[in-house]
């Protein structure tokens, strides 16, 4: 997001300088419309929603070692406890891959 000129407190999927998180209903409509155009369907018994963005972001970032407080801020949940973020948004079984690293590596704090 730094390349786009966004401040650190900028929420994902929102216009630059907008300090209000994208409403779930808007994210849901946007995502379902895009998936429909791509002919992508959720697996049987599942329904994609606006929270799918948060889950994907949180899971990918955590898989490569991002701290939970950074993830909470990234997904617009900084006022929630890290326990809540971990319990509701992170799939602990996800494994890191190149896409995770490409998207979220700059949020990882590496310790020497």
TrEMBL record:
Superkingdom of origin: Eukaryota
**Species this protein is from:** Porphyra umbilicalis (Purple laver)
Q: Which InterPro entries match?
A: DNA_brk_join_enz
Q: What name does the UniProt record give this protein?
A: Tyr recombinase domain-containing protein
Q: Which GO terms describe its molecular function?
A: DNA binding
């Amino acid at each position: 997001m730094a390349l786009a000129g966004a401040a650190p407190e900028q929420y994902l999927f929102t216009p630059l300088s907008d300090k209000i998180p994208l409403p779930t209903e808007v994210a849901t409509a946007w995502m379902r419309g895009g998936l429909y155009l791509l002919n992508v369907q959720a697996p049987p018994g599942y329904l994609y929603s606006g929270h799918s963005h948060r889950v994907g972001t949180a899971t990918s970032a955590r898989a490569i070692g991002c701290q939970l407080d950074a993830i909470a801020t990234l997904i617009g949940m900084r006022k929630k406890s890290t326990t809540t973020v971990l319990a509701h948004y992170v799939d602990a079984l996800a494994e890191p891959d190149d896409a995770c690293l490409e998207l979220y590596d700059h949020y990882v704090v590496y310790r020497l």
